[in-house]
Each structure stands twice: as structure tokens, then as C-alpha cells.
Write a structure and sequence with these properties.
Elements (H helix, E strand, L loop, with lengths): L11 H11 L6 H4 L1 H27 L6 H11 L3 H10 L6 H23 L8 H21 L5 E6 L4 E6 L6 H16 L4 E7 H6 L13 E7 L13 E4 L13 E11 L2 E9 L2
Antiparallel strand pairs: 1-2, 2-7, 3-4, 4-5, 6-7
Length: about 280
């Protein structure tokens, strides 16, 4: 038995092209990166097909298929309930649908909590240590853009009191030299003890001022903009080091952060890299 996904007959690049036209005003990067996005869709569809077939193999070798096993296959491999039930029926096993739905409700409750966590900016809480790591992600983001280019953008983050995790768009593994340079930039800005300032402004005004923000559709009409370094109103020379739309919280100055160290850099999906980093006492 094998599942073959029904791949849409026209190329993914045509789909991306049409979507890019629809969202050209709010997401111009879709058109700029159309080929890469289409390739990612194609790769992910084949990966999903592989996961489905792996789920079937797991089911077929199971001696017992109850609601818990069925939900495990559903949640882990994406196999539809109808297919799971069909295989169970063939093996003379009966799945209690009410029990399956209870497992689904428990999972949805956990997922809701995780989603609320994501909308807090990936923060597990607002303790001082987590706040320091959150501020460090802004320094890391700008350092990545300086070393790898302005096309770098945040794709996600997760922050605990022990480390930060930062996802960004990039195609290849970072070299040791690049990692060292990124660390140097971040630590230099920490040593400079730059002020971290917050202002509330209109979303469009924030973008016009050069503030970074890659989750445009999630922002309200009013946004918080955090500036690290010289504020735009300062008479001091030079632009701020970092200026991003963000919900916070942040420390008052970068000197509070300590020493920044990247402990891991790897691939999490096509075109997406992940950095894990820690802060330590000088």
C-alpha cells in the first residue's frame, strides 16, 4: 500500500506567481523570491508524501490500533483519519471515534497554548533573563543582515531563560568565519552599552522610518518600535544600529546582556537556518 499525493498539474511557480500578484502591496518579497518559494513547495510536498507512507508502514506493523495509536499516527505523520480507519478495519481492529476526538481536543488545547506563546514573541515568560535574550535577538538579527546581506529576515524565534533560538532565511550553512563575525558584532554592540528605546507610532509611519517588521498582517494600526542605538531624533552622528517593530519587553541598554555566544547553527527547512545562542556573565 502506498499513498501518492495528487500534485496539481500546473507548476508551483505559476501558483506562486498568482499569489504574488494578489499580495503584491503587502508582501512584495513573494515576487522577488518566487522561484525559491516554488522549489520549497515542491520539496515539502514530496517530504509530506514520504511522511504519509511512513505512517502507513507504522500502522501496518501495529498489532493493536486503538484511538491513542490512531491519533499518534494522525498527529505525527499527517495520515487522514479515514485512511487510518480503513487500515484498522482491514486488520480487524476497531477505533472508538469518540476517544479519537477526545485525543484531538486535548491536542488542540495544547496547540492553543503554544499559539498564545508564539504571539508573545516566542517568549516563555517576561522574566529579566528572558527579556535579555529577547533584546539579544534584535542585535543578532541586525548582525546577520550586516554579514549576510539585507535580504535576511526573521522567520521565527523561541526564547527561554537559558537560550535564544532564531530562525532566518538563508540557503547555505554559515562558515566559522561568518559565525565569528556575527558574534563579534553583537558583542561589540553590547560593550557599547547602547540605549534601547521604545516608541508607539502608526504602522505605516514605522515602515517609512526604516523599522523592520516581517509579520505585517499581524500588526495593528499602532505598533511599538524598539530602537537600539541613536534614536532618529538624536543629534548624534550615525543611524541607530537596530530599529524593529516588536511587542517587547526589552532591557534599557545593551550593556545588561553579558557575553553573546552562538552554540549551534543548522538547517530546519529548505532555505531556513536556525541559530541557538546563549548569554553569559563577562
Amino acid at each position: 500500500r502506498k499513498i501518492n499525493l495528487v500534485i496539481i498539474s500546473f507548476p508551483f511557480n505559476e501558483i506562486v506567481e498568482e499569489v504574488a500578484k494578489i499580495y503584491k502591496d503587502i508582501a512584495p518579497e513573494l515576487a522577488q523570491n518566487g522561484k525559491e518559494i516554488a522549489e520549497m513547495f515542491s520539496e515539502e510536498s514530496h517530504r509530506f508524501e514520504k511522511a504519509l507512507n511512513q505512517g502507513i508502514k507504522e500502522l501496518e506493523k501495529s498489532e493493536k490500533i486503538d484511538a491513542k495509536i490512531a491519533f499518534y499516527i494522525f498527529e505525527s505523520f499527517g495520515l487522514p483519519y479515514e485512511v487510518i480507519k480503513e487500515i484498522a478495519d482491514e486488520k480487524g481492529q476497531k477505533i472508538n471515534q469518540e476517544d479519537f476526538e477526545q485525543e484531538l481536543k486535548k491536542h488542540q488545547k495544547l496547540s492553543k497554548g503554544a499559539a498564545e506563546h508564539v504571539f508573545r514573541g516566542g517568549l516563555v515568560d517576561q522574566s529579566y533573563q528572558v527579556t535579555k535574550y529577547h533584546t539579544a535577538t534584535h542585535l543578532l538579527h541586525q548582525a546577520l543582515r550586516q554579514v549576510l546581506g539585507d535580504r535576511i529576515r526573521q522567520e521565527g524565534s523561541n526564547i527561554t531563560s537559558e537560550r535564544l533560538r532564531f530562525d532566518f532565511n538563508y540557503d547555505v550553512k554559515l562558515t566559522l568565519e561568518q559565525i565569528k563575525k556575527i558574534e563579534e558584532i553583537v558583542n561589540e554592540k553590547i560593550k557599547e552599552n547602547l540605549p534601547v528605546l521604545c516608541e508607539v507610532t502608526d504602522k505605516e509611519e514605522a515602515f517609512k522610518s526604516g523599522a523592520l517588521g516581517f509579520f505585517r498582517t499581524k500588526y495593528g494600526d499602532k505598533v511599538r518600535v524598539y530602537t537600539i542605538g541613536n534614536p532618529l531624533t538624536s543629534k548624534s552622528s550615525g543611524p541607530p544600529f537596530s530599529r524593529e517593530i516588536c511587542g517587547g519587553p526589552h532591557v534599557n541598554s545593551t550593556g545588561e546582556l553579558g557575553v553573546f555566544k552562538i552554540i549551534k547553527e543548522d538547517k530546519v527547512a529548505r532555505g531556513i537556518r536556525r541559530i541557538k545562542a546563549i548569554l553569559s556573565t563577562p
